[in-house]
Please model this.
Amino acid sequence: GEVRRYAIGSSIHVLFDCKQDERHEVFEWALNLTDVGLQSELLPSIGMFMQGLLEEKDCLAVIPQLGKQQALDLLEGYCRSQAASDGPKAVATYISLKPEGADFSGLPPVMRSLGEKTDFAAVDKLLPDDSKPIARESRTAMMKRWAEIPPKAAHEYVLASNGKVSSGQMDVVLSTWAESQREAAETWVREQTDTKIRSHGAHAMATHMENDFPDHAWSWALEIQDAAQRDRKLKEVHAIWLKRDPVAAERARLSIGN
Model:
């Protein structure tokens, strides 16, 4: 659990607090562990130390020589470390060195490690469109990270993507934005003159608020343009609201004639 992960993370610092030549011995020891579970937990953290342990060309050379899971675990850590300073390079490295036939499960953690000065648009261009599940999962992690920094820029990018980035990514951006600046996110949605964008924003805000502020979520759900989508969201919010304040929830339901 959490204690085990903390202990492993702390142990990496201790393991590598030694001379340069001894670090190579630690690296070799980790690669030859027979406890596969422990190795899988250690290697991502070790990967984050690789740039201080090996030259970049050597890092890039050793990963393809490993078994599939070892390579994925080490690659995740290596690219997470690189992502803070050069996001596009980190993502490109992950994609190019990922073992053939392996999934992209290590890419979302790399996206979550992107630095504040990352060229997010350049990172996004490395991904296929959102019709592919792995692209959608990785892009969701990237959009969430982007929205933690300049949320308006992330919104504008989604809107200008011409379908490569699914409209569902706007939910990710708005939800992340609303976590820290709810009023700013709500204002942005209200200021949209394009009814389709405003409607999608209303759906995103309703989804974000339904558990904590069902009354606000109800108001946003009423602004959804698509009738079927609006009815589904109103039913979801009403069911949650009933558990909090059944009188207010029923009053709201009756006010719209349902």
